[in-house]
């Protein structure tokens, strides 16, 4: 496998090295806002088949790159493939989102969980990674990903999505050792899973901690951040002669940036509720920052999108260590032409911030 | 109406005056976790009838005070009675939460909205306030409340609850003047509504900004905080010879405490994602603080509840200006006996923090 990359801005920015313009990608860039995605998904029949068929996962991964000047591809998959492989049977109910047939509630349930063996249980993911790398042919780097153990566990315990996380919080408060046992098994699974993605060709990895922000500061450290640190400590950090950077993204984690920046990640993802100038002041000396445009700005007219991009670039200011992104996944009802305005605005408006005088 | 109060700890703490122990109440303390509430609600037949029948609203307001040593009562009502009175027809779909028959999407929709005349449109609320005051008979103060204009507007525009607030954010980005027109009408309605509650006997008021935390820092200031300031500027601030304190609570607003503390409120509510010692350091010199136990701690065994209460009391530390509360409403599946442990722990464990040496 060749290690030459035509565009390595994204990897350089994650390591706070010089770049010509600020790199940009979009969380959920391969998704429902693209008509070609909807067509491929219809061809697959259902969402899980799309995830589990490497040729189709590769196709939707590449679709946004054919349209926009993105600086990275991200593997198309789902954070719930890991708990599915652990044995609790993921399915999707029409209009209801993900569900698990066997939610985890007791010590016996935790004992029954398999630690994922990626080559046995999630081969379709590493096959997709290898295929995407071949198709990318060095144009931009490929990001692998996983959910955080806490985030994955919320679905496993609640049996699906949740509004108040009552069941897992009850477990956390009444039987914390049981929850730690579950989180530990998920973390072990994720380490193997991400390392398999890296070995198959992922050049950076992101850990999505979508639900860490529903915890108190102390519970966050104990039940979410500790397991992300554990994962990072277990990852392959050099591959193909390059460092493999790690991004950690806790939605609603802005109050905890100082402690998040010590977890071992090279880059911390920001949602749109924090001013990026404040984030840089607090942790920009230690890690790169990724973010942080409110995805709903993409509903705005082009001039407003450009103004909001300009405000974030000005907020971060001169110098290195910024990967532009949305503060959460792109919404399904956004016009793809607005995504183009966004991506192009980042490149065009960021050049002055990278000039060396 | 008598102005003597047997227990004025709550009002004193809001004004950062001396108290013997830290006062405590619980958001949604009159609610589904109480079997007597469920019985009264069944008697009413449906939720809106419960809100609209003063004798029943009074009954459920008083129920938690008969069980627990709470330092304040809060009017039982709903933040959506205001938009209902503005003419967009609230109803509740079985298992689906609140819905509006005529969501607000266009300039014509905004023009068609009535400014609420509380004595004409929401007389049932002020009747309930007067009745509750009579029944309380000076035992503890009564809190009135409203939703924030932004929070109310999310329901009006989306037509009900929302996960990503796509429609109102689209309005905010593409036609901000239209949204400002809507927020202004809601704010005018809320000013009259809260003043009517104060005149009828509410001794403090809280503005619930449940959804302000989904905005960016600049959008929050422009579309949520500005309208809460406007309301506070329009309120009666002295009644029955006492100051009427105002509490502002923005869920997920922890990053913005500094600006929130300048909005004119006497007290800022905290959810559980911020360490109260940090909050006090940042704004405790300007306003009182209310909060901030994670409501799911009430699922824990009694000893854990007491430890978590102790940790928050220690975090706030010695001195005045703290009203203990949960960081959000009490969950419906909490055992009422755990609520009692919580309330009693606050009183018992806080005494040392108020001793004058």
Fold blueprint:
The structure is a homodimer of 357-residue chains.
Chain A: H1 9-14, H2 35-44, H3 47-52, H4 54-67, E1 73-74, H5 81-88, E2 90-93, E3 97-100, H6 107-111, H7 118-121, H8 123-136, E4 142-147, H9 149-158, H10 166-174, H11 176-200, E5 204-209, H12 217-234, E6 238-239, E7 242-243, E8 246-250, H13 257-260, E9 267-269, H14 276-283, E10 288-293, H15 302-316, E11 322-326, H16 336-350
Parallel strand pairs in A: 1-4, 4-5, 5-8, 8-9, 9-10, 10-11
Antiparallel strand pairs in A: 2-3, 6-7
Helix pairs in contact in A: 2-4, 4-8, 9-11, 10-11, 11-12, 14-15, 15-16
From the structure above, extract its key features.
48% helix; 357 residues; TIM Barrel; two-stranded antiparallel sheet; homodimer; 16 helices; 7-stranded parallel sheet; alpha/beta
